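Practice problem: predict the structure.
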Amino acid sequence: MHYFLTEEQQMIQDLAAQVAKEKIRPQRAQLDENEEFPWEIIKVLAQSDLYGLYIPEEYGGMGGGIFENCLAVEKLAEACIGVATTFAASGLGAYPILLYGSEELKGKYLPDIASGQRLAAFGVTESGAGSDVSGIQTTAVRDGDHYILNGTKQWITNGGEAEIYSVLAITDRSKGPRGATFFVVEKDDPGFSFGKKEKKLGLRASATRELVFQDCRIPKDRIIGREGLGFIVAMKTFDKSRPGIGALGVGLAQGALDIAVEYARKRVQFGKPIISFQAIQHKLANMATRTEAARALVYAGARYLDSGPADMSKVAAMCKLFPGDVAMYVATEAVQVLGGYGYMQDYPVEKMMRDAKILQIYEGTNEIQRNIIGQELNKEYGRIKESFF
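Answer:
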């Protein structure tokens, strides 16, 4: 379908597609097998100025929004969502600073993130606090002009590789969710270290580690926003970042669909290409329709969210929920279309199926997204006085 992209948006999409074709596809199997962080590809993405798509021009970015970022993420994900997640996760780490950071914090950190010279990461999840962000245990205690952080963050994308971390900690437990605060932590801060690199089902080109804080001293001017604003910062960040997860899903689904169609046109059984059989046609038709529907949702949702509406959470949740489920469905069906070949590592759909599962889990499980959508519907219809019955 034609989505009426501007010339600049088309250039962004074409550039990301070129990087995916020339740099990511030839290496994706090796990166996956060796669980290798894609530093060489990161350098290419930095040279291509793609890291600054959503960052304002005054901080060295291109001045785009969620939509422009989604265009790049989608094309990168067609080749490998491990690499694309590494790219997207830097944006997740940057958004708290971009949305709520002081001018000093923005000026200090955003230009390096926009240029790709330094990666960012987002530190919220803990062993006992995944979907329930309010359940975090990491603490930050005021000590003069500093805060002392203690605790452990778990399953942090870009952990150990990034140099800039947006970290959520409890500053006043008596206030509940209003007692949480975000801080910028730098990789070389004393008392900050990393756990082992996690071994994962998929997404193996992406680094996932614990963040460990042991009496880690952070200057007070590294607070993002103000003390007690942390929970709001986290939720508003997710409203901006979740369409990017949807774009990852669209990209993976499109990549798997392309491989399935190509294979079905070449694979001959009973004297005919298997794409001539209705059973295969129906599978491919369903895969293509759901992929296009997911793309339409992400594009429309991203454009809507860039307009700055008040009701962001429902749309952002939809933009993550549906494409994530579609990616899992399409990847699984692609394996089925390829049959025995699909189960082998010689074809990338095996990897895509493993990778797709994370899209239903990270940045809020799809069950949590359904909760958010349902809660927002309840609020919306509670404001409607007209009866439908």
